[in-house]
Amino acid sequence: MKPAYLTRRSVLAAAGFFAAWQIGGGKVLAEMVEDISDMKPGQYTWHPERSPDGPVAIIVSIPDQRVFVYRNGIRIAVSTCSTGKPGHATPTGVFTILQKDKDHHSSLYDDASMPNMNRLTWSGIALHAGNLPGYPASHGCVRLPLEFSQLLFTVTHVGTAVIIADAHSDPVDIDHPGLVLTGDAEQDIDNAEAKLKNAKANDPDDGDAVAVSVIVSSADKTITIMQNGNTVISGTATITPVDQPLGQHVFILSNAGGGGLKWHAVAHGETESVDTSVVDRIRAEPNVVNAMTERMHIGLLLVTTDLPSTPDTQSGKDFVILNQDETS
């Protein structure tokens, strides 16, 4: 049976469709369009058929006031959005979805309606439907057109990567055998393939979905594995050459087979493009590698950063990693 959002999309595809909803005292316009070059507030595209399966990554570009949705490295949607206004800036960095609620109401702002909420922090930052005036106007959340937020809700799950950045970078496909951090590519791929055969990708409707993030910091030479926001293990990362930055990257595991692990990589922060050599430069201790292999699943995140792994840049179940401008 086809997912509900495909049926809904076939209805929306009719030319000239235009609708308005009343949310929290402000109208939210949603219009399906094909051309993203000059999108107006409330407009979006939605093409899940371009990539029916695979891990989802969401990139929010604050300067563009756009949300880009990728599945298996292929862009399936773009939407207008409204991020935080002056004094309530939306934090930039790498996040994972912590909680989902179709009928959420704010506990901070007069019980305001926040339909189709994908929570990014326990302190109040989320993706949700809301008023779109055409400029940053929220209290820090990322507001979306209502219809788009409904569609997005069908493809996200706890653990989905959300990158909020000062720029937008398309994911790059990487087919690499040695990304499991031991240097023994043949053994790495055998272990990873065996694990992935018995693991399923996280499903949007799976309440037991597990979110695993592997964070490598060049600043303090650490590698940390987090599961559902909790630290599983932390150890020493050997990085060569030691004086060369890793850059800000997110690698999303998409598959394994044919002699390699298949990843989608996104650069963020001040890193302008993906540096694929980064994956060759990191090694971890055996107990850390074993912990990572045991938790191997489609959608696993490997995050590299040149920031220290401290409470200022990483805060429990909230942020996976924050950009420098949010910590200074």
Secondary structure layout plus pairing:
Layout: H1 4-12, E1 19-23, E2 26-32, E3 43-46, E4 56-61, E5 66-71, E6 74-80, E7 93-96, E8 99-105, E9 113-119, E10 126-129, E11 142-144, H2 146-153, E12 161-165, E13 172-176, H3 185-197, E14 212-217, E15 222-227, E16 230-239, E17 249-257, E18 260-267, E19 282-284, H4 286-294, E20 301-305, E21 321-322
Parallel strand pairs: 2-3, 4-12, 10-11, 14-20
Antiparallel strand pairs: 1-2, 3-6, 4-5, 5-6, 7-12, 7-21, 8-9, 9-10, 13-18, 14-15, 15-16, 16-19, 17-18, 17-20
Give an overview of the whole structure.
The protein has 328 residues and is mostly beta strands. It has 2 domains: 4-165, L,D-transpeptidase catalytic domain-like; 172-326, Beta Barrel (L,D-transpeptidase catalytic domain-like). The chain is 12% helix and 36% strand. It contains 4 helices and 21 strands. The chain has a 9-stranded mixed β-sheet with strand order 1-2-3-6-5-4-12-7-21, with helices on one face. A hairpin with a 2-residue loop joins β5 (66-71) and β6. 45% of the residues are buried. The model is unreliable at 1-29, 314-319 and 322-328 (pLDDT under 50).
CATH class identity of the largest domain: Mainly Beta
CA distance, first residue to last residue: 50 Å
Q: Numbering strands along the chain, what is their spatial order in the largest sheet?
A: 1-2-3-6-5-4-12-7-21
Q: Which class of secondary structure composition applies to the elements? A: mainly beta
Order of helices and strands: HEEEEEEEEEEEHEEHEEEEEEHEE
When the domains are counted, the total is 2
Q: Which percent range fits the helix content?
A: 10-25%
CATH topology of the largest domain: L,D-transpeptidase catalytic domain-like
Instruction: Enumerate the spans where pLDDT stays under 50 for 5 or more consecutive residues.
Output: 1-29, 314-319, 322-328
Number of helices: 4
Number of strands: 21
Mean of residue pLDDT?
A: 76
Overall form: globular
CATH architecture of the largest domain: Beta Barrel
CATH H-level homologous superfamily name of the largest domain: L,D-transpeptidase catalytic domain-like
Query: What's the main sheet like?
Result: 9 strands, mixed
Please compute the radius of gyration using only Cα atoms: 19 Å
